[in-house]
Design brief:
With 122 residues, the protein is of the alpha+beta class. The protein has one domain: S16 Ribosomal Protein, Chain: A (2-Layer Sandwich). It has 4 helices and 5 strands. Strands 4-3-2-1-5 form a 5-stranded mixed β-sheet.
Length: 122
């Protein structure tokens, strides 16, 4: 069983609020979890509750934190519960690569032939 430390949404519509949980990697995002490790308020950018001892325990047992949870842990160690935590959204590397390759192929053969004709006239 592969355990991950990830975020599970518990907030209302347009009011995101997340639970930091230890969960089997095959479970759904908001499905059953092994342990609740804390809560994160996105709107106010602060940790409401965070149990760093249990997070360290799960990591020592082989749990893999997601990129978002890694950032939260790092910032928690720097700032603590009292400070404001700025978490930037995670960029997907694979989709970014796909977009750049699609942008290169956007030019259709018709557009290429029009440009060639313009160059020939000059």
């Amino acid at each position: 069983m592969s355990v991950k430390l990830r975020l599970s949404r518990i907030g209302k519509k347009k009011a995101p609020f997340y639970r930091i949980i230890a969960v089997d990697s095959r479970k759904k995002r908001d499905g059953a979890f092994l342990e609740d490790l804390g809560t994160y308020d996105v709107i106010n950018s602060k940790l409401v509750r965070f149990d760093i001892e249990r997070v360290d325990y799960w990591i020592s047992q082989g749990a893999l934190p997601t990129d978002s949870v890694k950032r939260i842990i790092k910032l928690f160690k720097e700032v603590g519960l009292s400070g404001k935590i700025e978490v930037k959204p995670v960029e997907e590397k694979a989709s970014k690569a796909k977009k750049t390759s699609k942008e290169k192929t956007k030019e259709t053969p018709k557009e290429a032939s029009k440009e060639d004709k313009k160059e020939d006239k000059s």
